[in-house]
TrEMBL record, chain A:
Highest rank taxon of the organism: Bacteria
All residue ranges annotated as the Large ribosomal subunit protein bL25 L25 domain in the record: 5-88
Pfam (any one): Ribosomal_TL5_C
Entry similarity comment: Belongs to the bacterial ribosomal protein bL25 family. CTC subfamily.
NCBIfam families the UniProt entry points to: bL25_bact_ctc
Stated name of the protein: Large ribosomal subunit protein bL25
GO CC aspect terms: cytosolic large ribosomal subunit
Gene for this chain: rplY
Organism listed in the record: Novipirellula herctigrandis
From TrEMBL, chain B:
Organism: Novipirellula herctigrandis
Family: Belongs to the universal ribosomal protein uL16 family.
One Pfam family this sequence matches: Ribosomal_L16
Biased composition (Basic residues): 1-18
Family annotation (InterPro entries): Ribosomal_uL16, Ribosomal_uL16_bact-type, Ribosomal_uL16_CS, Ribosomal_uL16_dom, Ribosomal_uL16_sf
Region Disordered, annotated ranges: 1-21
Taxonomic superkingdom: Bacteria
Keyword Zinc: no
Known function: Binds 23S rRNA and is also seen to make contacts with the A and possibly P site tRNAs.
UniProt protein name: Large ribosomal subunit protein uL16
């Protein structure tokens, strides 16, 4: 079931008004799609945090606008703590949309007990599915994965109605041997200087 | 060899000023957990290496550590008891310029609890305040 989002229309636009809006505990948002007018909205910060906790993909809009929307994008502050802005796209829950979905690695690979380490090559994949049935995550079972083995996108467990957009041969996880890196030696005097790219030629000598 | 560039255009660089927050390299990309700088500063190549050793001794044989910063700035110094003048000093060490928000190290293949303990050990080596961060799900 989609989360319910109480939205208000935003009359004042621009960076100054938006900054004041954020200070008052609201998050600016925009609603677009289906060839209709673009609307500038505001949502309370608590509701946005709830959406993030629930990993919501689609929302039911109430308040100033009643519609169903897909969360298309979120902008974060540089430290990744606060949501600065949210993009909402109008959708019918039956229409097919392209989404990026997280991958959940399930099980303990055999290769780990053989002395390997499980490396995730990709953390998400692109899929096409009905907007009302977007999976929260796709599972890959790695229990049979041995040392040196690789599992690809085609081995993901896809729910009904979900098509994979990412090529099926894309590696998702593999188990490799643990590489213990030797500590680097301390720099010793003049030998520890990088080569200087000479002006106007491929010469790589550092003498000046 | 210590961490430093293989080739450079100029041996010496000006000190510069660190302004603003990181807009790139500020999310966890490779691993599951990361350590994010909350201050601006220079992190020496030797400090990066000390952090790597501290972390790898803890996760040995289990997880994989990713270093997200590279010391590409040369810092010069003049010898002690030298008179003023005679030009800029010789390169002394290499440092990575870090802004608030920069993800310094990442870890994968370990539990959240292990990652927290590991990064706590690593954080004690660093000259900047840091916080523990997780990868944002799609």
């Amino acid at each position: 079931m989609a989360d319910v989002l109480q939205v208000e229309k935003r009359e004042q636009l621009g960076s100054r008004a938006t900054r004041r809006l954020r200070q008052s505990g609201l998050v600016p948002a925009v609603l677009y799609g289906h060839g209709q007018e673009t609307e500038s909205l505001s949502v309370s910060v608590d509701q946005v945090k709830a959406l993030l906790r629930h990993h919501a993909k689609t929302v039911e809009l109430t308040g100033a606008i009643k519609d169903t929307a897909l969360i298309r994008d979120m902008q974060w502050d540089p430290l990744g703590i606060d949501v600065l802005h949210m993009d909402l796209m109008r959708v019918n829950l039956s229409e097919k949309v392209e989404m990026t979905v997280a991958i959940h690695v399930h099980g303990q690979a055999i290769g780990i007990s053989e002395g390997g380490v499980l490396i995730e090559n990709r953390h998400n994949v692109d899929i096409i599915c009905p907007a009302g049935a977007i999976p929260e995550r796709l599972t890959i079972h790695v229990a049979e994965l041995a040392l040196g083995g690789t599992m690809t996108a085609s081995e993901l467990e896809l729910p009904e109605g979900v098509e994979l957009v990412t090529p099926g041969d894309t590696p998702i996880v593999h188990v490799e041997e643990v590489r213990v890196e030797e500590p680097v030696e301390a720099a010793d005097g003049e030998t520890a200087e990088p080569a200087v790219i000479a002006k106007g030629g491929p010469k790589e000598d550092e003498d000046e | 060899m210590a961490l430093m560039p293989k080739r450079v255009k100029h041996r010496k660089s000006q000190r510069g000023r660190i302004k603003g927050s990181a807009t790139r390299g500020n999310t966890v990309v490779f691993g599951d957990y990361g350590i994010q700088s909350l201050d601006a500063g220079w992190i020496k190549a030797t400090t990066i290496e000390a952090g790597r050793i501290a972390a790898q001794q803890y996760v040995r044989g289990e997880g994989k550590l990713y270093i997200r910063i590279f010391p590409d700035k040369s810092v010069t110094s003049t010898p002690l008891e030298t008179r003023m003048g005679k030009g800029k000093g010789e390169p002394d060490f290499w440092a990575a310029v870090v802004k608030p928000g920069t993800v310094l190290y990442e870890l994968s293949g370990v539990t959240e609890q292990q990652a927290k303990v590991c990064f706590a050990r690593l954080a004690s080596k660093l000259p900047v305040k840091v916080r523990f961060v997780e990868r944002r799900t799609a």
